[in-house]
Amino acid sequence: MTERANVLVVDDELGPRESMRMILKPLHNVFTAENGDSALKTIRQEPIDLVTLDLRMPGIDGIEVLKQIKQFNPNIEVIVVTGYGSLKSATEAMKYGVKGYVTKPYNLQEINTLVDKAIEQRRFNLKLRNFFKETVLSGAGNGKENGETDPVNGNNLDDRKTQSNLLEATETKFRQMKESQEDSTKENAVLEEKLIHSERLAIVGLLAAGYAHDLNNNLTPMLGNAQLVQNAIQTKH
User: Fold this and answer.
1) Overall pTM > 0.70
2) What is the 3-state secondary structure (H, E, C) of 162-221?
3) Cα–Cα 20 to 30 A to 121, which of 45, 70, 145, 225?
4) Residue 112 shares a structural domain with residue 125
5) How many domains does the structure of the chain reveal?
6) Is 126 found in the same domain as 62?
């Protein structure tokens, strides 16, 4: 059975925060935070694997929280979930290596897919790092015992299996990075299209509100004059 990941949901609004918690809790250990300060405190106290992060919050904004999370532990994966997405905020978030950028309202499949991919990537990175660490320690130990080491790097030259495993792991990592980059490029293109569509809708909404306001201004005196005429007719009769 796969070990449950620790996920921190950060959102200043209770409704979205609890909704995300309910979505994720069947498969993960879910922590919640209502602001940036609380989120950073939890990060320091708990072994968090993944954070879903709102951007617009009182106090420390989401981008600053993201920055501090990555400074504290760059291996913690972050997915931005916001109702105030823009191309600027998306670009800023991508600079810090977020694994996803989702605008509200979102669908369950989208969130679950992003969370699963981010946690899978984190676990792969941890395994790879541990493998390199064990390989280095093993190589150093064998070299000291056998006396057959590289005079420059101090590596054990006769451990062909270790070298083969190291090469295979490195090639796998590069392949994963390439696939991740391709996926990220596609996701960014889709995100940009969504954001542009949202901005267009917002502009249409503003224009519609302006037209409605002008129309109401014109209709108000017309309606008033019509009522005056109606009252005058009724008075004569």
Assistant:
1) no
2) HHHHHHHHHHHHHHHHHHHHHHHHHHHHHHHHHHHHHHHHHHHHHHHHHHHHHHHHHHHH
3) 45
4) no
5) 2
6) no
